[in-house]
């Protein structure tokens, strides 16, 4: 999503503070839009290494030099680190989504102790939306961007979301809370995300940009497909590591048609002529396999997944 910050002086640096930064996907999009991420907060060490490699000008709060725990950081600490006391233009981030994710709740039943979709009641994972709101209050950015799973909007019929935002609603005007699909903006992947924009710029009412792509509509560009994403792909690209599959697994994958699922491995062979199914995460201890290559009997490499996420080939993932 590209955010146009009308009312900001384009002759100066537009500063973004990134919370829950991960490897920097939002920050990369902002960079393309002319917005500089001056500080990023991230708790995972491999993600911090990726941030430092790809955003050398960004101050990274995270291991091994900082805990990277948003709950233990203040707006004053961030300002001191970047040595800036002026107005912050943008605060962006997506608090951890496991407590609200529909996908994370599909594997086990609600009575199973491993069931994780418990919203703000899931103390094991933590509810970090209040800390996101706290830092909005402390940093007072001109604009904030909140990104998350669809479940954050639907949890408790939206009451939890609006209650959490209540402390800032007197100062910030917000866009209509809604879910967008990245495929409608040219991403070669069906990916639904909840997006909310807020601003305290006088006279401005934020809104989500209109879609630019559709499946079959003369008013829009056609969807970007898996085949489009894999054009000019080289086996020498970085992060193109492949899993080793057993011969019997390869044979099962070979027999699958486009779009068909291997029930044993619970993976899908992508249709090259359609956008990809949603790329999922695997977690720190493994699991969460990628989809199957449309033409080859194997799972996708990290670089192929990165292509589906629209990361450029020179963006290097560490860890």
Helix content: 10-25%
Q: What is the H/E order?
A: EHEHEHEHEHHEEEEEHHEEH
N→C terminal distance: 27 Å
What would you call the shape? globular
| Structural class by SSE content | alpha/beta
> Main beta sheet, described?
8 strands, mixed
Portion of residues in beta strands equals 5-15%
Number of strands: 12
From the alpha-carbon coordinates, what is the Rg to the nearest angstrom?
A: 20 Å
Overall pLDDT, averaged?
Answer: 88
Give the count of helical stretches.
9
Low-confidence stretches: 104-108
What can you see in these coordinates?
With 319 residues, this protein is of the alpha/beta class. The chain has 9 helices and 12 strands. The chain has helices spanning 25-32, 45-54, 75-82, 129-139, 150-154, 159-165, 226-229, 247-254, 302-308, and strands at residues 15-19, 36-41, 59-61, 90-93, 143-148, 173-174, 178-181, 192-199, 213-214, 221-222, 261-262, 267-268. Strands 1, 2, 3, 4, 5, 6, 7 and 8 form an 8-stranded mixed sheet that branches. The longest helix has 11 residues, at 129-139. The radius of gyration is 20 Å and the shape is globular. The protein starts with 14 loop residues before the first strand and ends in an 11-residue tail after the last helix. Mean pLDDT is 88; it is low at 104-108.
């Amino acid at each position: 999503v590209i955010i146009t910050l009308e009312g900001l002086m384009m002759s100066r640096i537009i500063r973004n503070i990134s919370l829950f930064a991960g490897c920097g996907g939002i920050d990369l999009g902002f960079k393309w839009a002319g917005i500089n991420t001056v500080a990023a907060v991230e708790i995972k060490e491999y993600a911090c290494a990726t941030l430092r490699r790809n955003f050398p000008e960004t101050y990274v709060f995270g291991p091994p030099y900082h805990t990277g725990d948003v709950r233990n950081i203040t707006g004053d600490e961030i300002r001191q680190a970047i040595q800036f006391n002026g107005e912050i233009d943008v605060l962006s981030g997506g608090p951890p989504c496991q407590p609200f994710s529909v996908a994370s709740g599909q594997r086990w039943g609600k009575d199973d102790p491993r069931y994780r979709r418990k919203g703000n009641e899931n103390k094991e994972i933590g509810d970090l939306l209040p800390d996101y709101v706290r830092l909005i209050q402390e940093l007072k950015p001109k604009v904030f961007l909140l990104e998350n799973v669809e479940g954050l909007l639907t949890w408790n019929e939206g009451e939890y979301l609006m209650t959490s935002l209540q402390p800032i609603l007197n100062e910030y005007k917000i866009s209509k809370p809604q879910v967008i699909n990245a495929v409608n903006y040219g991403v070669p992947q069906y990916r639904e995300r909840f997006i909310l924009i807020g601003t305290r710029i006088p006279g401005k009412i934020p809104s989500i940009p209109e879609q630019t792509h559709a499946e079959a509509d003369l008013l829009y560009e056609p969807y970007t497909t898996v085949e489009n994403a894999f054009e000019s792909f080289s086996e020498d690209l970085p992060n193109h590591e492949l899993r080793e599959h057993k011969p019997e697994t390869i044979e099962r994958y070979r027999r699958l048609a486009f779009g068909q699922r291997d029930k044993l491995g619970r993976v899908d062979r992508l249709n090259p002529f359609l956008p990809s199914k949603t790329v999922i995460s695997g977690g720190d201890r493994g699991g969460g396999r990628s989809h199957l290559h449309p033409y080859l009997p194997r799972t996708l490499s990290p670089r192929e997944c990165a292509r589906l996420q629209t990361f450029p080939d020179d963006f290097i993932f560490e860890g």
